[in-house]
Design goal:
Helix content: 40-55%
Order of helices and strands: HHEEEHHH
């Protein structure tokens, strides 16, 4: 399995500011003052892989878009180094979940990730967990607004 080198690391403070700017542009509420303990924990769980990707240079905030570079992919090496642009969410997230039963949560999530990115739904199960967790967190944040 091959790994790609990503852009230089940035500080966690800068990554948090980038995240806040992106969240502002999309209407994602990130002020934890109004959240209860459970909501805070859920939000931090979703925010963590995005912040980590920004710090590591795998994700770059470009206004209201994220540009994410797939770092490693044991099952589909052709994806390594591919940059995926994630713009303002649309109804494609929801239509990507169509055709799957309510009990097929992972399939529905993969469909939403496909609708969000334009990538084939079959790509997501092949991603390494770090890359998968990033896309999962972004979709879940989108679904929370």
């Amino acid at each position: 399995m091959e790994n790609i080198e990503t852009k230089a690391k940035i500080s966690k403070e800068v990554a948090n500011k980038d995240f806040e700017n992106w969240a502002d542009a999309l209407g994602i509420e990130y002020d934890m003052d109004g959240m209860n303990t459970e909501e805070k924990a859920d939000f931090e769980r979703l925010k963590a892989p995005i912040i980590k990707a920004i710090v590591d240079g795998r994700c770059v905030v470009d206004g209201n878009s994220l540009e994410y570079t797939i770092k490693s992919c044991a099952e589909a090496e052709g994806l390594i180094g591919k940059t995926v642009k994630i713009g303002i969410p649309s109804g494609k997230i929801y239509s990507g979940m169509d055709g799957y039963k309510e009990t097929q949560n992972v399939h529905r999530l993969n469909g939403a990730m496909s609708g969000m990115t334009g990538l084939d739904v079959g790509i997501f199960p092949k991603l390494d967990i770090r890359d998968y967790s990033f896309f999962k967190a972004v979709v879940q944040l989108f679904l929370s607004i």
